[in-house]
Amino acid sequence: MKTWLHRQTFNPDITVAVFFGVVAIFFYGSILWTGYMSLTRSTLIPSYEVIGFDQYVKLFTNYRWLVSCLNMVIFGVLFIVGTLSFGTILAILADRRIQAESLFRTIFLYPLAVSLIVTGLSWRWVLDPVNGLQGLMRNAGWESFTFDWLTNPDRAIYTLVIASIWHSSGLVMVIVLAGLRGVDNDLWKAIRMEGIPLWRAYLQVIFPGMRPVIASCVVLLMSEVIRGYDLVIAMTKGGPGIATEMPAKFAVDFYFARVNLGLASAASIVMLLLSLLMLLPYFYSEFRKRT
Amino acid sequence: MNLRRFTSTISVLGLLAGSNTALAQTVDVQHYWTSSSESKAMNTVADAFKSKGGKWIDSPSADFDAALAAVTSRIAGGEPPSAILMTPNSALRELAGSGQLRDFDDLAAEGGWQKVMSPLVWSKLNVGDHLVALPVGIHAQNWVWYSKPLLEELKIEEPKTFEELFSAADKIKASGRIGIAIGGEPWQEVGILFSSILALGGPDYWNELIVKRSPQALKSPVLPQAFDIFRKVSTYADPASPGRSWNDTTNLVVTGKAGFQFMGDWARGEFLAAGKVAGKDFGCFLTPGEKPSYAILIDVFAFPVNKDEDRIKGQTLLAQSVMDPAVEEQIAEVKGSVPSRTDVDTSKLDVCAQLGAKTLATPGAAVQAAYDALAGDLNGQVTDLATQFWTDKSMTTEAAVESFSKILQSE
Q1: Looking at the domain assignment, is residue B9 inside a domain?
Q2: Does residue B157 sit within a domain?
Q3: Is the ipTM of this complex over 0.90?
Q4: Count of H helices and E strands in chain B?
Q5: For an interface test with B, which of A41, A44, A237 has the most B Cβ atoms less than 10 Å from its Cβ?
Q6: Residue A216 is part of a domain; what is its CATH number?
Q7: What's the pLDDT tens digit per position in B319-331?
Q8: What are A139-179's pLDDT values in tens digits?
Q9: Nearest CA to A127 among A149, A145, A146, A153?
Q10: DSSP state of A14
Q11: Given this model, what pLDDT does residue B2 score?
Q12: Which end of chain B is more exposed for a tag (fewer CB within 10 A), N or C?
């Protein structure tokens, strides 16, 4: 048995070809099909008659879609900046050789193990104006305490940011911490000898050297932003009104509840283009480095 | 040797099990009836079906949209459910139009079903002259429910106009309770808008506006008035309203924490499930207007084309169970609907169901609810507009009416 297995030499090209075949069919094939569908008037059942770019025109005159895109930008910027800063601060604190470091590390990483649906539901209960934090404070005697962001159309989007920062900071912390642990001890010795203040040492010496680490964090977080669906569903269902609608939710709603395959496909294609656009700076810096 | 005997036993057992399922008449039912009254109604159908010897596979989804999503992907994936709970909307017309649904013309002719249904209902069940959906019960959207003990405590009469309704709600609010209970989900909000339009305009105007989408109807003063009433209702929303489900909202009225609720008569099922009696513990009226009107929503079963012999037999058996007058009556009793067969004895139903049955039988009162009447995703677009107007207090009535007109004229 063993000798037979040993005699087999697998050609890596075949393995890779199979893998690429699978990717080509299920990934690029789906993208192509979605692109095709976005040029048709398909509703519930696919229709294969091309009508041009009407669905895209419809999409960009749809108020809900525009609100969704704006929400994604607001949410994305605040979430990425917030998570990066919070996670980095945690990593720096953990790197200062504090007591019980592994305990804290586990505590902060724990939210990541909780699914976004559970995260959203728990935060929804915490932020619920009647039964959550506000109600608790008011029952405790602080009658004027108001924290109704979840049900306030102008503020609800920020509750999503809070919940997702809570969810993802631990991940950034662990990645950045790993990066910090990789910093050469000699560098630290040099910093100490030069007498550079700690904040400058981090901002000007340590982090610039950790560009790839930060870049991977940003890419990871960006994919969360574009996929942003489960958290919205669990926390606000896009409401109040359409205040927290997101493009992914728009696409899913129009695929299924609104049975509008054409418009939903157009939305998906625009989302794909948006995500490529967001990754452009990353590709650009990578490309520049190589050449 | 032992091993071989073991495997052969297993395969014999497997064969037996296989042949067993082949004998049963199986239905795989994709539905979304998950609240307490709804699941009771679904169990009524299931029990009737099982007592006739069928095998019931329950495939529930959390809500209507999720059920439709599951159905679409199951049909596309070649594993269609054998029955779907839905309403006769554009999705049904499209499924039927592309030949995905089994028709029941033969059974209908045999059972004389057309004679026992109102023409409006019958026309909704047929696509291209084929009967593709079987009615489970008839609901109406434009109901208002109230807590009778609460109104008696505050000495409020049942409101006959919107003004009386609002002044009653103010009184309830002043007593520290919720005047009008509202679940802040888009579909619940748009229901209030449609009820207001129907109440102010009456059935004829409704048909011009929603069914024919005539440009003249869009210019009528009824529209801005309806949006104003819709806005006024929104001011009664309590802080916990956003995102609250309809049955949790009904429960506020059931427990006397709130006075009124605008909701279709599926709400009656929740009152009944809580052991409340119509006319004693809770009251009901149709949104007040000059002419009686009844915006009907029909719950139907549709039957995707299946190839398996036992699943086809299962469909036939389920169709017969659903159309059984006794089953229709039982469903109406627990679910809050009105039986879709006109030959069902309604004398045992409560006062609210009788008011519904009476209005339904009034000539010209019944109209299609917007959910079924509006083509494509027009209903969805109006829903988006309604929830936007509801939450954005800075949006003017004129702007809302203009967007509304644009949506209705876009297709």
Answers
A1: no
A2: yes
A3: no
A4: 19, 12
A5: A44
A6: 1.10.3720.10
A7: 999 999 889 888 9
A8: 888 888 888 888 888 889 999 999 999 999 999 999 999 99
A9: A149
A10: H
A11: 53
A12: N
